[in-house]
Amino acid sequence: MTAQLATDEAVPNGRIDQSKMRKIATASVIGTTVEWYDLFLFGTASALVFNQVFFPDLPPAVGTILSFLTFAAAYVARTVGAILFGHFGDRLGRKSMLLVSLLTMGAATFLMGLIPDYNTIGVAAPFILLFLRIIQGLALGGEWGGAVLMTVEHAPENKRGWYGSLVQVGVPFGTLLANVAFLIVTASVSQEALLSWGWRVPFIASILLVAVGIYIRLNIEETPSFQQVREQGAKAKLPFVYLMQNYWKQVVLGGIATLSTGSTFTLMVASGMNYGTSEMGFSANMMLWVVLVSCIVALVLIPFFGHLSDRVGRKPIIAAGIIGEVVLAFPFFWLINTGNTAAVFLAYGLMMVAFSANFGPIATFLAELFGSKVRYSGLSISYMLSGLLGSAITPAITVWLLSITGQSDSIAWYVAAAAAASLIALFLLTDNHKRDIDRVEATSAISVGK
After folding, report:
1. Over 60: is that where the pLDDT of 443 sits?
2. Fewer CB atoms < 10 Å away: N or C end of the chain?
3. pLDDT greater than 90 at residue 307
4. Domain tally, the chain
5. How confident is the model at residue 13 (pLDDT cuts 50, 70, 90)?
């Protein structure tokens, strides 16, 4: 790829003071936490109740697969959302798109809590659920990229990995909150009440988190990189077209390189939970606690590995995490299959360490692949592509593999294969952790393979 250089001039000392940087980082973390809370609330409900609430007349395995396929629908919508929000994010700015995406996600999640069940309105219920799930996906497609750029494009060069990883904390933190919400509900009501109305409470309560996120995001500034694009009149008329003409290799390889983060995390928070409850007989509460504790591990390790990537580069840390996922794929299930509670906690803890090394620096790594002219589009589409290839199909595939083989090793092979593909793609991309992120265009120094 060769791209014509519009300008090599960076924003001179275009970074803000520490107090404002902390405010921006806080706004991004809270926003992504809300978005991922909403997203994984659906994933938790898919594993625990949706097959009975929205697909009750089907065999349990089929109902679970359909529930997870509805879960997957959002990932298709996320890719569309990445193109849509990326277009306006590169044309109008990062801040406005962050507000729109958060409001959209919050509204869809709130309305999910109000959907009548299958026994009330019949087949219309799962279709309404699917529609709102697609809206969720569209919103998240724009949320994540904008939040990453708000921190990475404001951050000092030697701290981009650290600040970018703080946005990533929103994933385990949002998942943690989603699991805490279900733990509280399942501990407070009977199984009958849970299926009737209890599951709705976490969805309706999400509106409170959205309000906090909107309030904070109203008071943040546009990034120096986008200001540079705007001041020079360098905006792309059609960012997606320009992106695919000049950066298609980075988009595709970046998506594949990130694939294993989605498949591994979804394995733990959705597929693993379903496996633990339906195949091993663990209680839903116990599996929720396992996910909760492992998410706490990630909250600590993701920023650690992000900070480490500022010192040694992004690729060595990401590669170590991917290799860890390959190595741990089989032991993860061997430990769960012991039926021992402590072994399950250990399996999740070890896999979360590998995931954190992979996931912590990946947002900044992807952002550094693209010039600021189309960075919102490039970052968002690449990451959402990884979700489509990994997270979207992982729950349904794992249930299907178990149904035809009866062996957990079949899932381990799938996870290991996804990680291997990511490792190959990663090494075909360039680590740009020292590049000038305010360049409107890329130079040949960031071409694939160099």
Report:
1. no
2. C
3. yes
4. 1
5. very low
Residues 6 or more apart whose Cβ sits within 8 Å of residue 194 = 49, 185, 186
The pTM for the full model equals 0.80
Q: What is the pLDDT of residues 203-230, one digit of tens each?
A: 888 888 788 777 777 777 766 676 676 6
How open is the CA angle 74-348-272, to the nearest 5 degrees?
A: 45
- Is residue 221 in some structural domain? yes
- Assigned domain for 60 exists: yes
- With beta carbons less than 8 A apart as the criterion, state whether 377 and 446 touch: no
Is residue 8 in some structural domain?
no
Strongest mean pLDDT among 215-219, 266-270, 321-325: 321-325
Bigger pLDDT: 404 or 52? 404
Domain span at residue 366 reads: 18-446
Residues 6+ apart with CB under 8 A from 392: 71, 72, 74, 75, 76, 262
CB count, 10 Å around CB of 215? Answer: 11
- Domain with residue 374: its CATH number is 1.20.1250.20
* Whole-number percent of the chain with pLDDT over 90: 23
Contact 256, 375 (CB under 8 A): no
Q: Mind listing the pLDDT tens digit for each residue in 62-90?
A: 666 666 666 667 777 888 888 888 888 78
The span from the CA of 176 to the CA of 291, in Å, is 7
pLDDT level of residue 325 (50, 70, 90 thresholds): very high
- Average pLDDT score over residue span 419-447: 75
Full 3-state SS string of the chain? CCCCCCCCCCCCCCCCCHHHHHHHHHHHHHHHHHHHHHHHHHHHHHHHHHHHHCCCCCCHHHHHHHHHHHHHHHHHHHHHHHHHHHHHHHHCCHHHHHHHHHHHHHHHHHHHCCCCCHHHHCCHHHHHHHHHHHHHHHHHHHHHHHHHHHHHCCCCHHHHHHHHHHHHCHHHHHHHHHHHHHHHHHHHCCHHHHHHHHCHHHHHHHHHHHHHHHHHHCCCCCCHHHHHHHHCCCCCCCHHHHHHHHCHHHHHHHHHHHHHHHHHHHHHHHHHHHHHHHCCCCCHHHHHHHHHHHHHHHHHHHHHHHHHHHHHCHHHHHHHHHHHHHHHHHHHHHHHHCCCHHHHHHHHHHHHHHHHHHHCCHHHHHHCCCCCCCHHHHHHHHHHHHHHHCCCCHHHHHHHHHHHHCCCHHHHHHHHHHHHHHHHHHHCCCCCCCCCCCCCCCCHHHCCCC
